[in-house]
Write a structure and sequence with these properties.
This protein has 420 residues and is mainly beta. The protein is built from four helices and 24 strands.
Length: 420
């Protein structure tokens, strides 16, 4: 909710700018535009799941969502994130059983064969990477939930007018057949809903066009050279981002009733960063901290993994394409892991603890419209291979991690003072 309020504060306090300035000129500062908005996702009654030995159809689901994204490459590509604000639908399938099915956050990419223009209907096609949660809650047996990841093609149409844009979209899930335990010993095949419709509205705003005048008349370059000579473009940095961590490898549950435990798949968390930017070298060195837990549960059985990580990272920026600045570098992480097992909320063994130094790689990009920026938006991707932790059973399991920050806010305090 805080992210939603922040977005609306930016939206209504930013000077109203022309939403399609790239029609006039394809310049660096017209390369991308940000937007925020809302849409409603509608999932018609379809699919099939089993409860108490009976087959049920997923009832109609309605989900309002907050939408934030950006139109890039002068009106040709759209990258966006949808965050559900709630789910409306029938949850009771029997007197003693409730279910919960909810599409989660998704990341989408849309391509417009004909660039967006005011007053014209434009078709698009793309792909969405999304997550979905299904949970059965039985009065006597307890509950079990599982997380599913899908890559889904999508298609739709957009209509823009005076900085506003309407979107209507259809998403199709091709791999909807999933295994799910309806008790500790009974496994069934479910068919998740395949068709997802959405309709919504977004409002564009621009925070980079104001930099164009100084870029063209040379005043930006002049000030950059002056501050560089004085070393005042170097700066400490503070970063904050919502992040997702995915288990590319996870403990296997192959003994007795533990087979019903779902595989650990991923968790959302916060990424906190502190560092220092060396402007001339195009180098950022800093620390990143993440802390999260992953729970796998099945009708009273539970397996919990917790991770705490502090990473030392060096980012080398190697290109600048119209303010799109990619980077790559090493990430050396000090890791502390803990794993525990429970049955009916009672711990069945001692916590198994693991410490390690884990080498990895970090890559991504910054959006930098001007070399004098006091803050930037950064996208981070991290990969840590060959991570191994101890289980309470004494076994060693791989827990390789892939981490993804779609938008990290990075602030340069020194520049705030030096560029006044």
């Amino acid at each position: 909710m805080k992210q939603v309020l922040l977005a609306f504060t930016i939206l209504f306090t930013t000077e109203l700018l022309h939403a399609q300035v790239y029609m006039e000129e394809k310049s660096k500062h017209r390369f991308a535009q940000t937007y925020v908005g809302f849409n409603t996702q509608i999932v018609p009654a379809q699919g099939q799941f089993v409860s108490d030995g009976l087959s049920n159809k997923f009832p109609t689901l309605i989900s309002p969502r907050f939408n934030i994204g950006g139109l890039h490459f002068w009106g040709k590509w759209d990258f966006n994130v949808n965050l559900p604000l709630g789910h409306l639908g029938d949850k009771k399938v029997a007197e003693e059983t409730e279910y919960l099915f909810k599409p989660g956050a998704d990341l989408s990419a849309r391509y417009y064969p004909w660039r967006m223009e005011f007053g014209k209907l434009r078709p698009y096609a793309g792909v969405s990477f999304n997550q979905m949660v299904f949970k059965l809650d039985h009065e006597e047996l307890g509950s079990r939930d599982d997380l599913f990841f899908t890559a889904s093609p999508l298609a739709g149409v957009s209509y823009a007018y005076k900085g506003w844009q309407l979107n209507a979209e259809l998403m199709w899930v091709p791999t909807n057949k999933k295994e799910f335990y309806t008790s500790r010993n009974q496994r069934e095949i479910f068919h998740l809903p395949q068709n997802y419709f959405s309709i919504g509205i977004v409002k564009f705003f621009d925070t980079t066009l104001k930099e164009e005048k100084g870029y063209k008349n040379g005043s930006t370059k002049k000030k950059e050279d002056e501050l560089r000579r004085k070393g005042k473009l170097n700066s400490f940095s503070v970063g904050l981002a919502p992040s997702a961590a995915y288990f590319l490898q996870a403990p296997q549950f192959s003994q007795g009733e533990q087979q019903s435990l779902p595989r650990h798949k991923g968790e959302f968390n916060w990424d906190f960063g502190l560092g220092y930017l060396f402007h001339d070298a195009g180098l950022h060195i800093g620390f990143s901290y993440r802390d999260y837990s992953s729970n796998s549960n099945s009708y009273g059985l539970e397996h919990v993994i917790r991770r705490r990580s502090v990473a030392l990272e060096a980012l080398k920026f190697f290109w600048d394409y119209n303010g799109f600045v990619p980077f790559i570098g090493p990430s050396i992480s000090y890791e502390r892991w803990g794993a525990a097992e429970f049955e009916d909320d009672v711990m069945t063994s001692e916590v198994a603890r693991t410490k390690m130094i884990s080498p990895g790689i970090i890559f991504g990009w910054d959006i930098v419209p001007s070399p004098l920026e006091t803050w930037v938006l950064r996208t981070n991707l991290r990969y840590y291979p060959l991570q191994k932790v101890k289980n309470p059973t004494g076994e060693i399991s791989r827990v390789d991690q892939f981490e993804f920050n779609i938008i990290q806010l990075v602030i340069y305090p020194n520049r705030i003072i030096n560029t006044r």
